[in-house]
Write a structure and sequence with these properties.
This protein has 122 residues and is an alpha+beta fold. The two termini are 21 Å apart.
Length: 122
């Protein structure tokens, strides 16, 4: 995957994000694994908490675990469009995970209208 300068881009609203990202975020927040997994390409890669999950089977396992491990609320903070394929969404999470509060970047790369890469990091 190519290197992306995530520091640039144009601020956009939640409504201006591609439909697949909006649908994924809603499904992820609702902990709806069945809907969330449909947003990914077959060869997608997700990196979260320093762990990389490759392909739909590993991503589905990650979604199941991340949705049930902790209880938390999610609030959209903002989004940036870097280019046609790259979007950075900042979410504020509060819950019973270690630390209890965190702002996370959900850095999406799209390919063919689906998510091919997602990196979640502070």
């Amino acid at each position: 995957m190519s290197t992306v300068d995530w520091s640039g881009g144009t601020g956009i609203s939640l409504e201006d994000l591609p439909a697949v990202i909006r649908a994924y975020l809603a499904a992820h927040e609702a902990r709806d694994v069945k809907s969330a997994i449909t947003a990914y390409t077959a060869d997608a890669v997700v990196t979260d908490e320093g762990h990389t999950h490759r392909g739909l089977a590993e991503i589905r396992t990650w979604l199941d675990r991340s949705g049930s491990e902790y209880t938390y609320t999610t609030e959209f903070i903002g989004a940036t469009r870097v280019d046609e394929a790259h979007f950075d969404v900042v979410q504020h999470l509060e819950g019973d995970f270690p630390g209890g509060v965190v702002d996370l970047h959900f850095r999406f790369t799209l390919n063919g209208g689906l998510i091919i890469q997602l990196t979640i990091e502070p």
